[in-house]
Amino acid sequence: MAPDPWFSTYDSTCQIAQEIAEKIQQRNQYERRGENTSKLTVTIRTLLQNLKEKIALLKDLLLRSVSTHQITQLEGDRRQNLLDDLVTRERLLLASFKNEGAEPDLIRSSLMSEEAKRGAPNPWLFEEPEETRGLGFDAIWQQQQIIQEQDAGLDALSSIISRQKQMGQEIGNELDEQNEIIDDLANLVENTDEKLRTETRRVTLVDRKSTSCGMIMVILLLLVAIVVVAVWPTNG
Predict the structure, then answer these.
(1) Which own/partner contact pairs does 133-137 have at CB distance under 8 Å and 24+ positions apart?
(2) Helix (H), strand (E) counts: the chain
(3) Of 82, 95, 111, 88, nearest to 21 (Cα)?
């Protein structure tokens, strides 16, 4: 058989109330030591808001159960008494948190720990820090949401910057490799140009030699022709 949602919600609500009492005591201990309590105060405010919402949910669940006859009237009255006790504890916790007036006997009887009963200092008679005084639960909740969004934004920005840095390093490495290739090509072109100039000089030299040889042959042929004409007998 599935557990009754009302009682499971009631148990979790009681745990929240107990946690609030412990946090308030811890806050007051910090104040006695002169330590910063801003963060702890914000946590307490959030827990008080959660407690308020849980009690509202318990009221709604109880009303539905009674109106639909899911429980008997006797059981409904018993749960109402438990709910009334939670409402009273919520009011006392809120008053203790805000330090409104002297501590009532009911706070001592319902919320003080066993250490307080044995004579430990009263954890409920310290004022709320000035930097958080006057802020409502909604404002605290909005502040927490804004801080969480800012943290998420900073994480995303940090991730983007890391990726950009990595890309920059990869581009730098690629540029170094390209520069090495360009240097190799420049050396290759320079060597090829030098070889081309050398071969050009050789071709020019060969051409000059060829031209000189041709002129010599022409001169020799002319000399031979002159000699032949000179010695060739003429007819009468």
Answers:
(1) 135/45, 137/45, 137/46, 137/48, 137/49, 137/52
(2) 6, 0
(3) 111
Q: Residue 168 and residue 184: Cα distance in Å, rounded?
A: 24
User: For residue 32, what are the contacts with CB-CB under 8 A and spacing of at least 6?
Assistant: 121, 126
Say if residue 156 is exposed, middle or buried (CB neighbours under 10 Å; 0-12, 13-18, 19+): exposed
CA distance 207 to 201: 10
Between helix 73-98 and helix 38-67 the angle, nearest 10°, is 160
The model's pLDDT over 32-68, given as tens digits with 9 standing for 90+, comes to 888 888 898 999 999 999 999 999 999 999 999 999 8
Q: What is the pTM of this model?
A: 0.43
Whole-angstrom CA distances from 51 to 59, 96, 166 are 12, 15, 48
Q: Which amino acid is at 15?
A: Q
Nearest to 61 by CA among 8, 14, 17: 8
Which residues in the chain land under pLDDT 70?
Answer: 1-2, 100-145, 147-148, 206-207, 209-210, 212-214, 232-236
Decide if 55 contacts 13 (C-beta within 8 A). Answer: yes
Angle at 123 between CA 117 and CA 124, to 5 degrees: 115
Cα radius of gyration (the chain):
51
Contacts of residue 138, defined as CB under 8 A and 6 or more positions apart, other chains included, come to: 49
* Helices 5-32 + 73-98 axis angle, to 10: 20
